[in-house]
TrEMBL record:
Chain ranges passing through the membrane: 15-35, 83-104, 124-144, 164-180, 192-209, 221-238
Pfam families xrefs: CCG, Fer4_8, Nitrate_red_gam
UniProt-listed InterPro entries: 4Fe4S_Fe-S-bd, 4Fe4S_Fe_S_CS, Cys_rich_dom, HdrC_iron-sulfur_subunit, Helical_ferredxn, NarG-like_domain, NarG-like_sf
Name recorded for this polypeptide: 4Fe-4S dicluster domain-containing protein
PANTHER family named in the record: IRON-SULFUR-BINDING OXIDOREDUCTASE FADF-RELATED, IRON-SULFUR-BINDING OXIDOREDUCTASE FADF-RELATED-RELATED
Annotated keywords: 4Fe-4S, Cell membrane, Iron, Iron-sulfur, Membrane, Metal-binding, Oxidoreductase, Transmembrane, Transmembrane helix
Length: 667
């Protein structure tokens, strides 16, 4: 009885083994040279400290979970492209493992130990799994072709020659591999090779040839398959297939975040810098340039960008790709003397961003966009002093009155009329309630301050406010690029808080929350900061307040970007909302990490809107959900949602409320 197995390099000829070794050496030399050139291109950027060993196992774990097992690629709503990539990736990974097992047996275990493991039942299972992997890889490639050249969703940009070459080349490697297998089976005719079910089928294609003809065709195809397979490996370093390496590394660089999401890097040697921000590609760090090379042009960032969804000039994908093109030109010696702002990236594009981080958080390979945007905003703001009239007014108000409205400190306590609110500057309290500029000075949002203070008083919490001593936290300055003015205000705030001995802070504004908790940490501050949704949920769990269901009709909750996506506070607000709702609660389709921005972040709330409004886009979703009450947890969001309700003429059936307003009436 014939032993189950197969002869390695069958019909390859006496020189087949040595020719394979020769091509393998040439392949890896060419691959190394290509990667070495790419490495030199990455290094044209500024140096940046990066300790890859830090959290190394967490980084590797994140890559295995998100890269190998496709957690970030197979996200909700990404079924077709997700499975397409999964089939190609896993198909080739299994085929690569199978090829390695063949090589190890033929070049090591057989020669050293006279041991062959590719036989018997193991060989049958091995053959079946490899054929299945190859078939799924072909299906994945065909899905990619269908998507790129037939259905062409909006986020797929203009096809490049490289896209076509990659897909055809991959398909050619897979198809010739099965044809080679089919030729061998047709010539040797072992019945057990039915386990190689694709090869068994392709063997029928040789039915018109005699034995000699089969062997000739098989040998030609064997060499063709070998050459194009090694060629594909070389092509990795010179094509979009490089993302196999760059995207994988970027997941490990970025996937495990050592700093908070959206953290803005401080300007090194601030006092001695002659120029601020970036207007040349070499001004970015090597890590930021590596981000550009890791981009696969998948377009998920664009799909989730509120600016792009409302027809503004910003597409995060195009933003990254335009910078990548400038980097490649610069690395090739084509110097752009006029700078990248308004020549590569338009000013309007920069100011369209709401800094919501949707692009970064939803990128399957962890590429941030706003860190590059903020560097160019810094250049416009601090180096050129080139900003809009709205920004000039904002900066003037913050410089002279320390609030965006220019109303001054005398009005910061008007909201406390009739309430017995302590001042943290006069007496010791356990918690500082950081009211924020909007809740202190905007008539509508003052209701939030009153409502939340009422909740704290009923719960018996020891708290106080700064009143006239409270200044803007600096978020509008920092996220519009005015780092110098931000630093002045922030440093003063930190000094005051430390002087007062403040340890615990509560705020209803996610932008203040993020600044006090994360940005101020760069200044040596270490406060225990709570968002008011966290604190109210905590009070309810501890039994200090009893929340009764009072909200009739359909209730929905809008995730503020800087509370949800940036600081990952999703559950506490929903816990409170589900206690106050008497009717039903409906989750919006775009929620949690995929929540849609209100349009007010990144300084946008202080700018005029000249395009379709982001808050209108968001409100359309709420109207479709037939919501009666829109619950928010951010003063910016409340303003934007109320404006949208009025603009959509839905005031009779819909209302927007801050979560604290509802709780205050429900306890």
């Amino acid at each position: 009885m014939m032993e189950i197995g197969r002869e390695i390099l069958w019909n390859a000829g006496s020189w087949g083994r040595y020719i394979t070794y020769l091509f393998m050496v040439i392949t890896f030399v060419c691959l190394f040279l290509g990667l070495k050139k790419r490495y030199a291109m990455w290094k044209i950027g500024q140096s940046a400290p990066f300790d890859f060993k830090s959290l190394l196992w967490q980084r590797i774990g994140y890559f295995i979970k998100s890269g190998v097992f496709h957690k970030t690629i197979l996200r909700k709503g990404e079924g077709f492209p997700g499975w397409m990539h999964f089939f190609i990736f896993w198909g080739f990974l299994i085929l690569a493992i199978g090829t390695a097992l063949v090589a190890i047996q033929d070049d090591f275990t057989r020669l050293v130990f006279d041991w062959e493991y590719l036989k018997g039942d193991f060989y049958l299972g091995f053959s079946f799994i490899l054929d299945l992997a190859g078939l799924f890889a072909i299906i994945g490639v065909l899905m990619a072709m269908w998507r790129r050249y037939v259905t062409r969703p909006q986020r797929i940009d203009d096809n490049k020659t490289d896209d076509f070459i990659c897909l055809i080349w991959i398909l050619a490697v897979l198809v010739t591999g099965f044809l080679v297998e089919g030729g061998r089976i047709a010539a040797t005719k072992p019945d057990y090779e039915v386990w190689s079910f694709v090869g068994w089928y392709t063997a029928s294609l040789y039915s018109g040839l005699d034995q000699a003809g089969i062997e000739i065709v098989h040998r030609v195809l064997w060499y063709v398959h070998m050459i194009i397979s090694f060629g594909l490996i070389v092509y990795i370093a010179y094509s979009r297939l490089l993302h196999i390496i760059t995207s994988s590394l970027n997941m490990m660089f970025r996937g495990v975040e050592e700093s908070p999401r959206g953290a803005i890097a401080a300007i090194p040697d601030f006092e001695n810098a002659e120029e601020f921000g970036v207007n040349a590609i070499e001004g970015f760090t090597w890590r930021q340039i590596f981000d550009l090379d890791a981009c696969t042009r998948c377009g998920r960032c664009q799909d989730r960008c509120p600016a792009f969804a409302t027809e503004k000039p910003l597409s995060p994908k195009k933003f990254i790709q335009d910078l990548k093109g400038e980097w490649e030109r610069t690395a090739a010696g084509v110097k752009n003397e006029e700078g990248i702002i308004d020549n590569v990236i338009g000013e309007e594009t920069l100011w369209s961003c709401t800094a919501c981080l949707s692009c970064q958080v939803n990128c399957p390979v962890s590429i941030p966009t706003f860190d590059k945007n903020i560097e160019m905003r810094r250049y416009l703001t601090m180096t050129l002093s080139q900003v809009s009239s709205e920004m000039k007014l904002l900066y003037k108000n913050l410089q002279t009155r320390f609030d965006p409205y220019g109303m001054g400190k005398s009005q910061r306590l008007e909201w406390t009329e009739g309430l017995d609110i302590k001042k943290a500057t006069d007496e010791e309290v356990e918690y500082l309630y950081w009211v924020g500029c909007v809740a202190s000075l905007d008539d509508r949002n003052r209701k939030i301050a009153r409502a939340f203070s009422t909740v704290l008083q009923k719960a018996g919490v020891s708290f106080g406010v700064l009143g006239p001593e409270e200044k803007c936290c600096g978020d509008p300055l920092r996220r519009t690029g005015n780092e110098y003015q931000y630093f002045e205000i922030a440093e003063g705030n930190v000094e005051l808080l430390k002087e007062l001995g403040i340890k615990k802070i509560i705020t209803a504004c996610p932008h203040c929350y993020n600044t006090l908790k994360n940005d101020y940490a760069q200044l040596g501050a270490n406060f225990e900061v709570y968002h008011h949704t966290e604190f109210m949920a905590k009070l309810a769990r501890e039994g200090k307040i009893k929340i009764n269901p009072t909200v009739e009709g359909i209730t929905t909750y809008h995730d503020p970007c800087y509370l949800g996506r940036v600081n990952r506070i999703f559950d506490d607000p929903r816990e409170v909302v589900n206690k106050v709702k008497k009717g039903s609660f409906v989750e919006l389709p775009r929620s949690f990490d995929e929540g849609f921005c209100c349009g007010g972040g990144g300084g946008r709330i202080w700018m005029e809107e000249h395009h379709l409004r982001i808050n209108h886009n968001r409100m359309d979703e709420m109207i479709a959900a037939k919501a009666n009450t829109v619950v928010t947890a951010c003063p910016y969001c409340l303003i934007m949602m109320e404006d949208a309700i009025k603009d959509k003429e839905k005031s009779e059936t819909m209302t927007a409320l801050d979560i604290s307003e509802i709780v205050a009436k429900s306890i």
